[in-house]
Each structure stands twice: as structure tokens, then as C-alpha cells.
Write a structure and sequence with these properties.
Blueprint: E1 5-11, H1 19-38, E2 45-51, H2 57-71, E3 75-78, H3 82-94, E4 98-101, E5 114-116, H4 121-135, E6 139-145, H5 148-163, E7 167-174, H6 182-191, E8 196-199, H7 203-218, E9 225-227, H8 232-238, E10 246-249, H9 258-271, H10 279-298, H11 303-310, E11 315-317, E12 320-325, E13 330-332, E14 336-340, E15 346-351
Parallel strand pairs: 1-2, 1-3, 3-4, 4-5, 6-7, 6-8, 8-9, 9-10
Antiparallel strand pairs: 10-14, 11-12, 12-13, 14-15
Helix pairs in contact: 1-10, 2-3, 4-5, 6-7, 10-11
């Protein structure tokens, strides 16, 4: 018998300044769709309707509107940048659809019409900044793209560092897709900051990494670079210059879990032995599975029923156990820290003892309290970061 088909929209840019990551999200999402459609466990198939906004921010609203009006999708997977999510958010709320957002993001948002599958700030920014404060420096030089991801990430970083009696040395921003990085690299070489936090997106980040590596090498400087977004496919794009970056993420290809080893084997069989999954791509894969399992449990595609069926349902994903916190629609994830190596992979040197509940508004963080003697930052149930 032919299974009934459920239309699902997939929105990710295959062209433009962050096309590399858009393509990774699509590859991972379609891998999950194909796997689900072949499994007897599911009594339906997923019909993927892919749209390419080409990296043009206003196009995200246009293609989302097309999927809803002309394809009648109730569930949409995708968007990579926060700017693109902000374009889609009004229409999915107005038409009562559900966006399954795979990317790690800056937090400070909670919509009934979004399932936030990627990392919240307490999963990536907090572990990274605490590691830096405890082990490297209390002075950070920030470089990023001029949009909400960098603005909010820098704001949280600034307040954490200030609470530890540290200092943000500079915040230098480039427009999305901007490649003129020389003036920032020259300033870094001149000022010699102890660490650089890179929140650039797409091609801007790759250009900066290469220029930063060449300039610091020529000057005989050893300045650690930090990231909350760098992933294996991007290491290959940036080349050898990307080695040594300290990165915070819920997923790395090198995770030694049976579920991940099986996932990576399937990925390489499908995309080539020298390819690697990315954190946001793997998250899109997880999003498709979370959606499919919720559809199966709900017995309908109605978003209210699906949302209720998805909440609290544990999925042993490639990155480890994942489930949706029904109180805020964000995922419970396991934070990890790693350093990139010359082989285009990450060596994990720390991970949380157990999956961590999402705290998108950082309500469990009291940065106004004095740091402990050892420099760690205390937790308390007070909202201090939001102003």
C-alpha cells in the first residue's frame, strides 16, 4: 500500500554568502527524509518542498508565504541565520504554522510557532566564555557580522566578562558577506589581544580566518580564536588556517557515540568519504526526525497536536539524547568544547556530564552576583542579562 504523504517545507539558501551552510542543512534534511520514507516504523511519507531564498533576507518571507499558500504545508524546516528566522517568524505565527529551526542561535526569543532545535546561549556561549575566563584571559576582542546573532552574543559575552571584572577590548562588525577584513586584522596585530571571539557568518568568516592566520603568523603572534559556530565543512573551506580554533557546539563529527558513528558512516556513504556533516546540518537531520516521530505519535499534522506529542519525547540522536522542553519549545542538548586540528576535525576536550535544559533567556544566570574566588560565575534564579 502507498503511504499517505505529508508536505513539509524546507527553506535554506543554496546561493549567497552562506550558501555552504545552507547546502549542508539541505543535504542533512533530505538524508533524514529519505531514511524516514524507507522505514516501516512510519505510516506516512514526507514530501519535501525545497525553496532557495538565495541568501536574500526578504526572500525568506516570500518563499515561506509560497509554501503556506500554494503547497499548504503546516511544518517548515530551515533558515540558517537569525535574520532569516526573523523574516519567517511573523508569517508562521499569523498562519499558525510550525517552524523547526535547526541553527544554534542567540536566544531571547520564544514562540509557540517555532521549535528551536539548535543550541541556546547557555549551551554554547556560556561554556565558551567560562572556559576563556578560567583558562585564557579576562580580555576579549570581538569580531562579527552586523546582525542580531553577533549583537546578542556580544551583549551576553560583555556582561559575563564584566561580571568577572574583565573587559571587552573591541567589537568590530562587518556587513553580511563583506570580505574587506584587512583593517580589522591589522588592528588585532597592532593591539595584540589575548583572545579573539569570531561571530562572523559564512564567507566573511572564512576570509577573516585566512587573513588572521597569515598576519599573526607573520607577526609571530599566538592569539587563540573562539567560535560558537565553526564546523567541519567550514574548516575545509577555510583551509589549514582554521586549525587551533576553540569552538563551542552540541555536535562534532568526532563524538564517540554509536548513534553518531552510524550516522557518520551513512553520511559518508551518501556524500563521499571525504565529506563531513555540520552542526547545523546534523541539527536539521534531528529536526526532521523529531517532527516525524511527533507526527507518528500525534496521528495528525495539526501543529497543536504535533507540538504536544513532541514535547519531552527523547530521541537518541547523533549528538546524544535530545528532547524538546515543552515549557519553551527549545531542545535539551549536551554542550561540548573542542579545538580544530590540521586534519579538518575537532578534538573534544570537554563536555557536560548530562544533557542541559535550555535557558534561552538566561533566567538561571545571576551575573550581578560577585564572581567566586576561582573566577567562576554563580547561578541563581534571577533574570539579570535581559535589560
Amino acid at each position: 500500500m502507498t503511504k499517505p504523504s505529508i508536505p513539509v517545507g524546507i527553506i535554506c539558501s543554496q546561493h549567497g554568502p552562506y550558501q555552504a551552510m545552507g547546502r549542508e542543512i539541505l543535504k542533512s534534511a533530505m538524508m533524514a527524509v529519505d531514511e524516514i520514507n524507507e522505514q516501516d516504523e512510519f505510516d506516512f511519507s514526507i514530501a519535501a518542498h525545497v525553496r532557495d531564498p538565495r541568501g536574500i533576507i526578504s526572500e525568506y518571507h516570500t518563499v515561506c508565504d509560497d509554501l503556506i499558500r500554494n503547497v499548504a504545508v503546516e511544518h517548515i524546516i530551515g533558515c540558517y541565520t537569525s535574520a532569516s528566522r526573523k523574516q519567517v517568524l511573523p508569517i508562521v505565527e499569523r498562519t499558525d504554522r510550525l517552524l523547526w529551526y535547526p541553527a544554534r542561535y542567540e536566544g531571547f526569543e520564544c514562540s509557540d510557532n517555532v521549535i528551536y532545535v539548535g543550541a541556546s546561549p547557555n549551551h554554547n556561549v556560556l561554556p565558551l566564555v567560562r572556559y576563556v575566563l578560567d583558562n585564557l584571559s579576562r580580555e576579549i576582542f570581538c569580531v562579527g557580522s552586523n546582525y542580531v546573532w553577533t549583537w546578542e552574543t556580544n551583549r551576553v559575552t560583555r556582561e559575563l566578562v564584566t561580571a568577572a571584572r574583565g573587559k571587552i577590548l573591541a567589537e568590530r562588525l562587518l556587513e553580511l558577506g563583506e570580505s574587506a577584513v584587512t583593517h580589522i586584522v591589522d588592528e588585532i596585530v597592532r593591539r595584540r589581544p589575548p583572545v579573539v571571539f569570531n561571530t562572523l557568518v559564512g564567507s566573511s568568516s572564512y576570509d577573516f580566518i585566512r587573513a588572521f592566520h597569515a598576519a599573526t603568523l607573520a607577526a609571530g603572534l599566538d592569539i587563540p580564536m573562539l567560535s560558537c559556530s565553526l564546523c567541519e565543512p567550514e574548516l575545509k573551506i577555510a583551509g589549514p588556517a582554521s586549525a587551533g580554533c576553540i569552538t563551542s557546539s552540541a555536535y562534532f563529527e568526532s563524538i564517540r557515540l554509536p548513534e553518531n558513528q552510524a550516522f557518520v558512516a551513512r553520511w559518508k556513504a551518501r556524500h563521499g568519504e571525504h565529506s563531513s556533516p555540520s552542526v547545523d546540518g546534523q541539527s536539521a537531520y534531528v529536526a526532521v526526525y523529531l517532527l516525524a516521530r511527533a507526527l507518528q505519535r500525534a496521528g495528525t499534522s495539526d501543529i497543536g497536536e504535533v507540538r504536544r506529542a513532541a514535547a519531552g519525547h527523547r530521541y537518541n540522536s547523533p549528538q546524544g539524547p535530545v528532547w524538546i522542553d515543552g515549557s519553551n519549545n527549545h531542545c535539551v542538548l549536551t554542550p561540548r568544547l573542542a579545538v580544530s586540528n590540521a586534519e579538518g576535525q575537532f578534538d573534544i576536550f570537554w563536555e557536560a556530564d548530562a544533557p542541559v535544559k535550555p535557558d534561552p533567556y538566561l533566567t538561571q544566570l545571576d551575573i550581578a552576583a560577585s564572581p567566586a574566588r576561582d573566577g567562576t560565575l554563580p547561578n541563581a534564579p534571577h533574570l539579570r542579562v535581559v535589560k
